[in-house]
Amino acid sequence: MLTKRIIPCLDIAGGQTVKGVNFVNIRQAGDPVALGAAYAEQGADELCFLDITATIENRSTFAELVKQIALHVNIPFTVGGGIACEKDVEVLLSAGADKITVNSAAVKNPELINRLALNFGSQCVVLAIDTKFEENEWTVYVHGGRTPTGINTIKWAEEACQRGAGEILLTSMNHDGTKNGFALDITSALSEKLPIPIIASGGAGTCDLFVDVFTKGKADAALAASIFHFGEIPIPKLKQYLKEKKVAVRL
User: What's the whole-number mean pLDDT along residues 133-139?
Assistant: First the structure.
């Protein structure tokens, strides 16, 4: 049985880790390199670093920060934010990233997914989807959750999978930062439809909510930010609880 993964996410703005609620009301949470190293030490399975202002400001994620992270972290980590072409990916992988995420650029030009999968391998390409439930449908947003596209989330995920994406990082904007639980319906729908792993993001708040996303939501991994950054749930405690609830995790 494949173990379920716990992935702390560090949203980066101006070189610092930040966290908001429903993609707004941002506050600082600390140094990303120090936090990443601490999470690796505590037993995180992977890490995710997202430059949340890169797309808006039309710039690539800082390769220097990625280099520093790679020096201090001994587990796989994914980097995203502003990635728009093969060159961006080359720079980040050369700096030490294991995987990259694409979001806005892939929606604008879906062929990008094919090219990245061909050049770097599907295992390296994570499609990030920021989704919002409105008017009885889950739809895709881009530009850091600021711009609606009207694209159906399930259809977009299916297309991305067919084009070569190796994983889906699904963030529910309705649930982001609320600590009230993950979006179980859309997470389970994608997990059942697609042959690639689904990483659930948005809504982590208690150990039981993680149990729910792995059992009811059928997620392969769960990503969280503030509950780890502010010490609300230590990773060892979370993993031990999951094990007690018969969820397969790496201790």
Answer: 96
Radius of gyration of the chain (CA): 16
What is d(CA 106, CA 103) in angstroms, rounded to the nearest whole number? 5
- Catalytic residue, from 45, 51, 88, 130: name it: 130
173-227: per-residue pLDDT in tens? 999 888 999 999 999 999 999 999 999 999 999 999 999 999 999 999 999 988 9
What are the structural domain ranges in the chain?
A: 5-244
Active site includes 185? no
Q: How far apart are CA 142 and CA 107, in angstroms?
A: 8
Contact 163, 102 (CB under 8 A): no
Output the pLDDT for position 60: 52
**Unique residue bearing structure tokens 């929606």:** 107
Average pLDDT across the chain, whole number = 91
- Is residue 208 part of the annotated active site? The answer reads no
Q: Identify the architecture of domain 5-244 in CATH.
A: Alpha-Beta Barrel (3.20)
pTM (2 decimals)?
A: 0.92
CA angle 159, 48, 163 (to 5 degrees): 15
Residue in the block written with tokens 């995710």:
48
- Residue 233: which H helix or E strand, with range? none
Do residues 223 and 214 touch, judged by C-beta distance below 8 A?
A: no
Which residues 6+ apart lie within 8 Å of 162 measured at CB?
none
